[in-house]
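Hi support team,

I'm filing this because I wasn't sure whether my run with NA7 finished correctly. The job status page said complete, but I'd like someone to confirm that the output block is well-formed before I use it downstream. Pasting the exact inputs I used:
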Amino acid sequence: TPAPAGRDLDALIVGAGFAGLYQLLCLRDRLGLKVQVLEAGDGVGGTWYWNRYPGARCDSESHAYNYTFSKELFEEWEWSERYPDHAEIRRYLDHVADRFDLRKDIRFGTRVVGARYDEAANRWSVTTEAGETLTAQFLITAVGCLSTANVPKFPGLESFQGQWYHTGQWPQEGVDFTGKRVGLIGTGSTGIQATPVIAQTAAHLTVFQRTANYSVPAHNAPLTPEFKAWVKENHAEIRRIMHTNTNGQAFFIEDRSGHEVTPEQRQALYEAAWAKGGLQFRGVFRDMLLDKSVNDTAAEFLKAKIRAIVKDPATAALLADIDHPYAAKRPPIDTDYFATFNRDNVSLVNVRAAPIEAITPTGLRTKDAEYPLDIIVFATGYDAMTGPLLKLNILGRGGQPLAKAWEAGPRNYLGLQVAGFPNLFTITGPGSPSVLCNMPVAIEQHAEWITGCIAHLRDRGLARVETTEAAMAEWVAKVNEAANVTLLPQAHHSWYLGANVPGKPRVFMPYAGGMARYRAICDAVTEKGYEGFVLSD
Ligand code: NA7
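And here is everything the job wrote out:
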């Protein structure tokens, strides 16, 4: 039974993934507000509701990919593998929704297509695809950062007689590749996860690579009973690590410089990290993302691994022809990605040298060849961070479109608020550290901060919170400064910069100063009476 719509809502939340579920719980159960969540999908899960492509799996380890607010929830839930796959994450979020009785305040199958701030009433009016309008005092977006599919506008796509899919909009019933000639475009985390799985059943898989990428083995495996017991016993300590380190993961980046060790020690450290697998490879040296000469050693180690795994020298050379620093793009982790190119039914095509020109009725054409295909998989990423927000067609004070305010790139304060858009909060917005961090940790911090801010207003009989142009200018400068001391902006093809979407402004979007520092900044803002925000009645 959906909650009553209409004028008595205090808050509307868009999205029922990790962020929307927890924001609902906070506002409804802790503040007693009337809240409605609007969700386009027919179930909870957000990004994980849509990402069901073969091999879709989280790159955070399962014991860190949880909410941390409830000890009981943590203790009763048990993950089965080192990294949770998409189906298990949905089971987890289903469990959370049931356990905290959240479903009754979520309207599924409801896509938001517009939102407008009514200054006189101090309310947000939200329009759904079905033409319904709901209003509330607060509007909170929980729409994720990687949820707006980027399907390149290749001419001829509509003429293709086979099937095509974007990985982020995967059919719920799955796709059968058995005996098919499959083309996969894109070699980010998604393409790297999907390639080995599709290769197992396809007649032939052609991977179209524009930008070569590093990858470290995930070494996924079922969790042992001993590990599961260790996690439960150490819940408090795991939580403490996740809340105090820079990336929200359950491990610390080593406090050791790449310059402190001999070449032999360095090689041994990299070998050990490779054997352990996963994102911890990035944690070998504290200056790996700060000092190019240190990063070069990691890059060389990883390229040598590619050359050792891949038997055909030309394919190996193309896979190892990587031109960005390691982890300056979100670093993929994989299960047999490079080894998959040793299969007879897999080939690699360089579409930087000969770009894709068109999709034809029977396949794909590059500048120098035709590839007959039955199925095309677009692992081409997302209009990241800003895409999901701009798609909501948000109009602020005086009808000003968010798209206009962000014409030259996103501008906000703390990733949370935009001047001219009172009472609108953006969970994991651009300018927040979320995408450089283990997501649930970033989400919990945002949802709790927003909850605290709304509670503060209510306690004082105030009705409106809005950041200022000056606070935004300062924050945008901080975001730039934080990025520029790292090697991150050196990956020119990265979605952190919006580079994968033609025409998108090139701005480094996430806050790269680390989750711990960000949390401290937000806490200081609160302590100073919401410095940088104007609170009014
Ligand atoms: P990514 O990391 O943005 O990767 C997309 C890939 O698709 C990347 O290799 C792109 O090459 C490629 N791409 C995009 N457009 C084209 C065109 N027009 N032609 C050829 N190749 C193209 O997205 P993912 O889904 O893999 O991962 C997103 C995040 O999800 C990931 O970082 C994790 O945080 C989870 P490019 O590099 O732009 O040359």
